[in-house]
């Protein structure tokens, strides 16, 4: 049964990448059913169940089924909260990924306050992880920081100028971290596609 679930999950991943969302959803649901039963018998399968829930949520989000996607993310987060309590070192990084993904979905559906809350929690986790392992977690931290600044930009456009200072501090922090990785393509992508445009945007609101 575990092998069947893994095969279904991997097939669904491939189908989702090629935007065959309906087929992917069907296979994720079948994998989910198997992994729920496995996790009921043995908690070792909880991370696999959470992973399939995340994959299904991503698929549903790409297919425009935002409410169903959010429900799957929320269930996955509940599972990861349990896992983090058991073994924080093993599961905190993935928990931050789930929070960041959920924040992105809520930003897309204009649930800005909820997106902010999820992003801030992910940011704090990745900040602490980066203290102990900057090479592994500086860029994931910057990912959340820049996304949070995008959200603050939305607030500022709506007239909430108190977020300008918060964004300025986050952008300065992200810039310092990103400049340490001049040969890393993802770092340069963050700089060109998010950091520079956000700096230009918020510059208009600084005294």
Q: Could you please describe the fold and organization of this structure?
A:
With 207 residues, the chain is mainly alpha-helical. It has 2 domains: 1-86, Tetratricopeptide repeat domain (Serine Threonine Protein Phosphatase 5, Tetratricopeptide repeat); 91-207, Tetratricopeptide repeat domain (Serine Threonine Protein Phosphatase 5, Tetratricopeptide repeat). Helix content is 85%, strand content 0%. It has 9 helices and no strands. The protein is globular. The termini are far apart. The model has no long low-confidence stretch (mean pLDDT 94).
Features:
207 residues; mainly alpha; Serine Threonine Protein Phosphatase 5, Tetratricopeptide repeat; 2 domains; globular
Euclidean distance between termini CA atoms: 62 Å
- Uncertain residue ranges: none
Estimate the mean pLDDT confidence. Answer: 94
Mind describing the biggest β-sheet?
none
Name of the level-1 CATH class of the largest domain: Mainly Alpha
CATH architecture of the largest domain: Alpha Horseshoe
How many β-strands, per DSSP? Answer: 0
| Proportion of helical residues | over 70%
CATH topology category name of the largest domain: Serine Threonine Protein Phosphatase 5, Tetratricopeptide repeat
Shape: globular
Portion of residues in beta strands equals under 5%
Superfamily (CATH H level) name of the largest domain:
Tetratricopeptide repeat domain
Kindly name the structural category: mainly alpha
What order do the helices and strands come in, and which of them pair?
Blueprint: H1 2-17, H2 21-41, H3 46-62, H4 66-86, H5 88-108, H6 112-132, H7 134-157, H8 163-178, H9 185-203
Helix pairs in contact: 1-2, 2-3, 3-4, 4-5, 5-6, 6-7, 7-8, 7-9, 8-9
């Amino acid at each position: 049964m575990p092998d069947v679930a893994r095969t279904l999950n991997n097939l669904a991943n491939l189908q989702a990448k090629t935007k065959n969302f309906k087929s992917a959803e069907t296979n994720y649901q079948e994998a989910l059913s198997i992994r729920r039963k496995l996790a009921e018998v043995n908690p070792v399968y909880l991370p696999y169940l959470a992973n399939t829930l995340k994959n299904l949520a991503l698929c549903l989000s790409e297919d425009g089924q935002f409410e169903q996607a959010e429900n799957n993310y929320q269930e996955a987060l509940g599972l990861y909260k349990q896992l983090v309590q058991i073994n924080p070192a093993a599961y905190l990084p993935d928990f931050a990924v789930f929070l960041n993904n959920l924040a992105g979905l809520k930003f897309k559906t204009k649930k800005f306050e909820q997106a902010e809350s999820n992003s801030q929690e992910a940011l704090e986790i990745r900040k602490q992880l980066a203290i102990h392992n900057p090479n592994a977690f500086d860029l994931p931290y910057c990912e959340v920081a820049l996304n949070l600044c995008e959200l603050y930009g939305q607030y500022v456009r709506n007239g909430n100028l108190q977020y300008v200072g918060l964004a300025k501090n986050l952008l300065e922090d992200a810039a310092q971290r990103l400049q340490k990785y001049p040969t890393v393509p993802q770092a340069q992508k963050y700089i060109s596609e998010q950091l520079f445009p956000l700096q230009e945007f918020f510059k208009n609101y600084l005294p």
